[in-house]
Amino acid sequence: MRIGILNSGGDCPGLNAVIHGVVGAASKLGWEVVGFRDGFEGLLPDGEHVLLNPADTVGIMKLGGTILGTTNKNSFAAKVGTNNLKDVAGRVIEMTKQTLADLRVEALIVVGGDGSLGTALHLFRAGIPIIGVPKTIDNDLQATAMTFGFDSAVSCVVDALDRLHTTAVSHKRVMVVEVMGRSAGWIALWGGIAGGANVILIPEIQFSLEKVAERVIERENNGHHSTMIVVAEGCKMPDGEVVTKEDGGYGPRFGGIGEVLAKRVGETTGKEVRACTLGHLQRGGEPTSLDRILGARFGVKAVELVRDGHFGSMVSYQAYHVGSVPIEAAVHKLRSVDADGEVVTTARSIGISLGD
Ligand code: F6P
């Protein structure tokens, strides 16, 4: 038996732990593993692949990024920037089937987020035996309580807030920290609470400038001359504007709301405000221990699903247990923060403003 693995979309701390888990579990069954490089592109002619032996994955659990490389663009791009899903072209599917047949790969494990799993579902429906593994720092996939990579991204935000806090206090400034997460506020909410933010703005709760300014002034009047504001990149400004950047023909990408908001808060409050965008720092570096363990468990489970013939399934984390769900339960609809949920209530109860 020979199986394939690829990761697709943005990279994410913990991807190498998944590869380690897959290769370890497969070798125990006496199976071979082919790793396809650069996402789905590795499945097309001239795409690269590599035979992965257990010896090749020694020590990779702690490494950030992915030893296989990845892309969220090109032939299979199912979702680009903030655009909708697109179908994979028929000739691309045929070439994929040919590659798998030529290499004698009997099943494919696809590690990806919403867009990549949408592609995986499409390929599965076209007859390719596929198992999905959920991956995204954004934590916005349906049908899994958590994705690996999220905890590492949150740790990055917390570390940044700890650092920015000291300089904000020294200069009596307001600091606006823009974090990733696309249209979901998970990174902002968890990172903001853990990092001691005073204001957390998430896409699920529309903020008003007046309320944000009110909190800054209230703190000022209480003798706290610095304020930490965390804003998720996917938030809408009060006039409905989503701040984006153009990405060389691939459509708009989130990014820039931190600067826009900082200017407006400065104008409204008269305070000195600085913006800091954490950007890809949140995706880089070593995975936390939680993400390493989650990744390895997901990888092992994916192999078990192949062994049991549960194609079209995705590994899923629910109630401390790693199980599975149909891929279609996880894609085409993002998992948002519950605006009235327990974590938001926790934030409010410890005095954090959500800007509403
Ligand atoms: O989906 C993960 C993510 O890091 C988002 O939080 C962010 O908006 C996007 O990817 C950035 O993508 P790129 O690496 O293409 O700039």
Question: What is the gist of this entry?
Answer:
By secondary structure, this protein is of the alpha/beta class.
Q: How would you portray this structure in words?
A:
- This protein has about 350 residues and is of the alpha/beta class.
- Helix content is about 35%, strand content about 20%.
- The chain has helices at about 15-30, 90-100, 115-125, 150-170, 185-195, 210-220, 255-270, 290-305, 340-350; strands spanning about 1-5, 30-35, 50, 105-110, 130-135, 175-180, 200, 225-230, 245, 250-255, 275, 315-320, 320-325.
- The strands form three sheets. It has a seven-stranded mixed β-sheet, sandwiched between helices.
- Helix 1 (about 15-30) packs parallel to helix 8 (about 290-305), helix 4 (about 150-170) packs across helix 5 and helix 6 (about 210-220) crosses helix 7 (about 255-270).
- The chain is elongated and about 70 Å long.
- It starts with a strand and ends in a 7-residue tail after the last helix.
- Bound molecules: 6-O-phosphono-beta-D-fructofuranose.
- 6-O-phosphono-beta-D-fructofuranose binds near residues 253 and 283.
